[in-house]
Amino acid sequence: MRHPKSHFRFIVLLVPLLIMIPLTVKAATGLYSSMTTLTAPVPTSGDEYSNGGSCDGNVALSDNGSIAVVGDPFASVGSLSRAGQVYFYRYLNNQWKEVQAIPDPGNTSYDNFGICIVLSADGTNALIGSDASVNGQLRAGKAYLYTLSGGIWSESHEFDDPLAISGDSFGSGGGLGISANGETLLISAVGTSVNGVTDAGVVYLESLINGQWVQATLADPDDTAYDDFGDALALTPDGSTALIGSKAPVNGQSDAGKAYLYSISGGQASETHEFDDPLAANGDHFGYADDSLSANGETALIGAWGTDVNGADGAGQAYIFHDTNGVWKETQALPDPNGLAGDSFGFPTALSDNGEIALVGSDATVNGISGTGQLYRFDLTGGHWSLVDTLTPTNPNQSNFSYNGFAMSGAGDTVLVSDPNATVNGLSNAGAAYLYQSTVNLGIGITTSQNLISSVDAEALELSVMNLDPLASAGDVTVTDTIPTGLRFIGANPDGGQCSASGGTVTCTLPTLLPVAADTIWYPTLWVQATQNSGSVIDQASVSSNEKDPNPANNQASATISLIPPPAPSGAGGGSGSFGAVALLVLMGFFGVRQKRARTSVA
Question: Residue 363: pLDDT above 80?
Answer without folding.
Answer: yes
